[in-house]
Amino acid sequence: MIFLKGEMSNESTEDCYVCNWISRIDSNEKKFYIAELQTGYVFLSNKWQYFKGYTFFVSKLHVSELHFMSKEFRQIFLFEMTVVSEAVYYAFKAEKINCESLGNLCSHVHWHIIPRYGTDPCPDKAIWNIERSIIDSVIVSDDELLQMKQALIAEMKERAEKYQIKAVFQ
């Protein structure tokens, strides 16, 4: 079963930041792109790497809420999100993983998969409560990004095989 962005949606995708992001996979966003799964795309965040391994899992469907997805798609999407989360956990040796789907600024379902570490300035709070200058303080080099990509791809491949999920890697 293949799902395309915009399927089952009453919303326009032309002005959607996430739909436009997906359309740029083959260009500027390629260096952050990890994999295409059955229901979504995996990207390393192009910022916020203070939390090393900060990753997005973006739905192929342009819908604003999980309950707008068909039951079958939603079940696969949520399972794949947990697989991505597990891969991030092991790839970056996190102490904890936060998974958040907010959508207040962008009405296209996507997950923020955020590794948390012992060096975290506020381990008992959501990252949105941490001073922005701290979160924005880490910029990874192209070499670091490549190492991060390789680590996450290796973990994703292992889990794709373990859980028998379809995944296409860059």
- Helix/strand order: HEEEHEEHHE
Strand content: 15-25%
Count of β-strands: 6
The second-level CATH architecture is: 2-Layer Sandwich
Stretches where pLDDT falls below 50 for ≥5 residues?
A: 1-10
CATH C-level = Alpha Beta
**Largest sheet: number of strands, sense, barrel closure:** 6 strands, antiparallel
CATH homologous superfamily descriptor: HIT-like
Q: What's the tally of helices? A: 4
- The mean pLDDT is 89
What is the name of the CATH topology? Answer: HIT family, subunit A
Number of domains: 1
Overall geometric form = globular
Structural Rg: 15 Å
Characteristic key phrases:
6-stranded antiparallel β-sheet; 6 strands; HIT family, subunit A; 170 residues; 4 helices; alpha+beta
Q: Could you characterize the architecture of this molecule?
A:
- By secondary structure, the protein is α+β, with helices and mostly antiparallel strands.
- The chain has one domain (17-169): HIT family, subunit A, CATH 3.30.428.
- Helix content is 32%, strand content 18%.
- The protein has four helices and six strands; from the N terminus they run H-E-E-E-H-E-E-H-H-E.
- A six-stranded antiparallel sheet has the order 4-5-3-2-1-6, with helices on one face.
- Helix 2 (71-91) packs across helix 4 (142-163).
- The protein is globular.
- Residues 1-10 have low confidence and may be disordered.
